[in-house]
Give the backbone structure.
Amino acid sequence: MLPKLSLILGGAASGKSVFAEGLVMASPLPRIYVATAQAFDDEMRQKVQKHLAQRGPNWRTIEAPLDTADILPDLPKDAIVLLDCATMWLSNQMLAEKDLAVEQANLLDALQACRAHVVVVSNEVGLDVVPENALARRFRDAQGALNQAIARQADLAVLVVAGLPMVLKGELP
């Protein structure tokens, strides 16, 4: 059985979502997908459709691009949740000009209060060059802080590189 809170990190197209889905699908518990992406263009709509097809029909999907913290505490205890992804959630908060410290604290509290098992997918953005503009640097720093905070709370943290998992904290089931 998966621990209460797992964090799956990786770069773009690293295989992190596929790996996280595999962890969730190995569980006998009912599956809930918490989607944080907003499909504003055709490319993103295609990506969402690809993820839906990958998961198959045995998932309940909740779209929560901004209000993720509000829905987590009310999810059932006998479920496993895939929150995909913290990076899109953070982007949404920034675009909505929310107070990132407050929203991060709310999300961390909600993850703690959630009775279900939760697998959070997030991008590791600290392995690249320093971004050239202030907004991109602010995002990188905020994402790094969010990842570190979730990792501190998590029982399991895995970095996925080229589709291969490297356990950073805890043990895979």
